[in-house]
Design goal:
The chain has 470 residues and is of the alpha+beta class. It is built from twelve helices and 19 strands. It has a nine-stranded mixed sheet, sandwiched between helices. The chain has a three-stranded antiparallel sheet with strand order 1-2-3, with no helix packed on it.
């Protein structure tokens, strides 16, 4: 049940006005779309602070993303086959949503194992050891425990130092960005003392079988190493536009594994948040050099097209699907290729889009600016930018980015539906074997030189989650 307030009042929510009657019944009236009014003007204290923060970051040789990698479950479902099973034209999913496949987690896979796999890959790709990590933040909206964070499990699985600060962030799909921006500030403030931050976005997007949201599922994790003198993308520190509003566009009550969403309203909230965050960013950013590409939060590809069209309108330019400078095909489409093969991964969606862009065009984009828009329902949003570093293409080429998509098992519809039915009791499944190391009483770490992976074994008699490395 949505929580509403009694009494007669009205509130502006995105592009809608809600009048709350004495019976707590919200009456919605659609209003024209208009970007949020900026809170500050250029030359304000906000701008001065942004310049000061940027100068501190520059003194460190810049701050940003040094390496990035992703992980997905071992199984996936073709959207054309799901469409056939649901009696829907396949184009409604593939073209209408912009998604071709969605990753489906098995019984031994959860947000912890996906996070560990992505983190393992990014550490190997970067050449760094766990001893160099001073901050580990996990952004997720599919936490495995109300108290113990995924970052704690990751600390043990990766063998991170005891002096490493670890915690979890939550704000729907914005949680990963909250972690990234926290890490950037941690480094720019001098707290890192030469260490790097490990930011992991990990989620399993589930919707009820047969529901309208079913084709927008997915699962995966994206891990990023954030450091001074980054080799991939140097972020424009202190220069970002924020937006927040209390709305109920997407939610998952504590008793549910499947999320609930007000689809059309959520899209409008997303677009309103983009207008607000982008407007704030433009007040602070140097617009003399335009953005060469933009990555958007992409729960499904079609939403990125709507976002880009709105941004073009805000810029006073007309975007079209035709090839040529400024078109969607040039500025956005390369960032959607990997997401189309994975589906919705919530907190990691924006950063899988970024990795897709770099995988497709890093050589062409070296020394160029790219924009990043992050959105989390509820809602919070951020627009910020960075510059692709010289040499980024060579690093991406050496990473074997697409490896997680190889050798996946293609599920049949009956296999998929059985997996989803088993999800209901996955968190109560007794562990088939209990190891002392698996509950924090001994070393259980992923060797960076091996191909072993973390595996969710089940729950022990004290209701602790048990993991093994195989």
């Amino acid at each position: 049940m949505r929580r509403v307030f009694a009494g007669t009042a009205f509130a502006l929510v995105g592009a809608h006005k809600f009048t709350l009657t004495e019976d707590s019944v919200p009456i919605m009236t659609t209003l024209p779309i208009s970007p949020a009014a900026p809170d500050s003007a250029s030359g304000s204290p906000d701008c001065a602070l942004a310049r000061s923060t940027a100068a501190a970051a520059a003194a460190l040789g810049g701050v940003g993303i040094d390496a990035i990698a992703f992980a997905v479950p071992r199984s996936y479902l073709e959207l054309t086959e799901l469409a056939a099973a649901r009696g829907v034209a396949p184009e409604k999913y593939t073209s209408g949503l912009g998604t071709l496949q969605m990753a489906i987690a098995g019984p031994e896979e959860d947000p912890v194992t996906l996070a560990a796999q992505a983190a393992h890959r990014v550490l190997r790709a970067s050449g760094r050891s766990p001893a160099e990590i001073g901050l580990c933040i996990v952004g997720t909206e599919t936490a495995v425990d109300h108290s113990k964070p995924i970052a704690s499990y990751l600390h043990g699985l990766l063998g991170l130092p005891r002096s490493c600060r670890v915690f979890e962030t939550k704000h729907a799909c914005f949680g990963g960005t909250a972690g990234l921006l926290n890490a950037v500030d941690w480094i720019a403030a001098g707290s890192a003392r030469g260490r790097a931050a490990l930011i992991v976005c990990t989620d399993i997007a589930r919707y009820t079988v047969g529901s309208a949201g079913e084709p927008t599922q997915g699962a995966g994790a994206v891990a990023m190493l954030v450091s001074a003198r980054p080799r991939l993308v140097e972020l424009e520190v202190g220069i970002s536009g924020s937006y927040a509003l209390d709305v109920h566009d997407f939610w998952r009550p504590l008793h549910r594994k499947d999320a609930l969403v007000d689809g059309h309203f959520s899209v409008q909230c997303y677009l309103d948040a983009l207008a607000g965050a982008y407007g704030q960013w433009r007040l602070l950013a140097d617009e003399r050099e335009p953005l060469a590409r933009t990555c958007y939060h992409v729960p499904y590809g079609k939403l990125a097209r709507k976002a880009h069209q709105l941004r073009c309108q805000l810029d006073g330019r007309d975007d079209s699907a035709a090839a040529g400078p400024g078109s969607f095909a040039v500025e956005v489409e390369p960032s959607l290729r990997l997401p189309a093969q994975v589906g919705n991964i919530y907190t990691g969606s924006l950063y899988l889009a970024l990795l897709s862009l770099l995988y497709s065009e890093a050589a062409e984009l070296e020394n160029k600016r790219i924009g990043l828009f992050s959105y989390g329902s509820g809602c919070a949003a951020e627009f910020f930018a960075g510059r692709v570093r010289p040499g980024a293409a060579a690093l991406i080429d050496a990473m074997d980015v697409a490896a997680p998509l190889r050798d996946r098992h293609r599920l049949t519809i009956p296999e998929y539906e059985q997996l989803r039915q088993n999800d209901l009791h996955a968190d109560q499944r007794p562990a088939e074997a209990i190891h002392a190391a698996a509950v924090g009483q001994g070393p259980l770490t992923l060797d960076l030189e091996s191909q072993r992976q973390a595996r969710f074994c089940g729950i022990d008699p004290k209701e602790r989650r048990i993991y093994s490395v195989q």
